[in-house]
Amino acid sequence: MKTGAQTTTLLQNLQKEVDRQANESQQRIGTALTDFETQCTAQLIDVLRAIVNDTNALHAEVKTLNQQTQLQLEAAAKSLTKRTQTMMNAARFLGMKGAILTAGIMMISLAICLLGSMIGSLILFKSAPAPTTSVAPPNLQQGQTLMGIGGLGTVLVLPSGAEITPCPMTAPRGRICLKQP
Predict the structure, then answer these.
(1) Which of 111, 149, 156, 165 sees the fewest Cβ atoms within 10 Å?
(2) Residues 28 and 61 in one domain
(3) Same-domain pairing of 117 and 153
(4) Co-location of 39 and 104 in the same domain
(5) How far apart are CA 67 and CA 89, in angstroms?
(6) CA distances to 2, 123, 124 from 112, in Å
(7) Same domain assignment for residues 38 and 5
(8) DSSP assignment, residue 127?
(9) Domain count, the chain
């Protein structure tokens, strides 16, 4: 068995060893964190450079496209101005006779279009079928029959409490079966 002095010395030595290992661990963790921070910073700087380069390239491309578009618009405007001037010269050459002739042709075309649409609408409205009236079955007399717009179909509003139920297998096709309270 060890004496008290030896135990104290042993405890002190253990404490020193624990402290030394803790300091080494802290230094290793600090070094690892510093290395990690350095790597992350370098990667972020590379990403930022790539973003700046891409943004600059995009800006240059947009600027080039804007210049090309502006040149195309200017060329189109010049062409349009030239064509307008040519047409104005031709109109002056034809004088009032050409304008009156053009207006007369437009009026005749408008009259033909209106006449055609009137004939078409008359044919459409005259050929509409007469609305049919339907009577609700006797057991649904409390229901209400509504006529569709322009006589196109009818709707039967069921009386309160009536429910649609599946028809028996023996019922003819197209039947709707109701259950009344």
Answers:
(1) 149
(2) yes
(3) no
(4) yes
(5) 33
(6) 128, 16, 18
(7) yes
(8) T
(9) 2
Interval 111-123 mean pLDDT: 72
pTM of the entire predicted model:
0.36
pLDDT higher at 156 or 58: 58
How far is Cα 145 from Cα 135, in angstroms, rounded to an integer?
8
End-to-end CA distance of the chain: 102
Which residue pairs from 174-180 have beta carbons closer than 8 angstroms and sit at least 24 positions apart in sequence?
178/140, 180/139
Within-domain flag for 133: no
Share of residues in the chain with pLDDT > 90 (%)? 18
Same domain for 79 and 26? yes
Beta strands at 177-179 and 144-147: parallel, antiparallel or unpaired: unpaired
Give the residue carrying structure tokens 């030394």: 20
pLDDT in tens, 54-79: 989 988 988 888 888 888 888 888 88
Q: Which amino acid is at 140?
A: L
Handedness of CA 34, 35, 38, 40 (dihedral sign): negative
Check whether residue 75 and residue 150 sit in a common domain: no
Domain range holding 114? 1-128
User: Quick one: average pLDDT of 25-50?
Assistant: 91
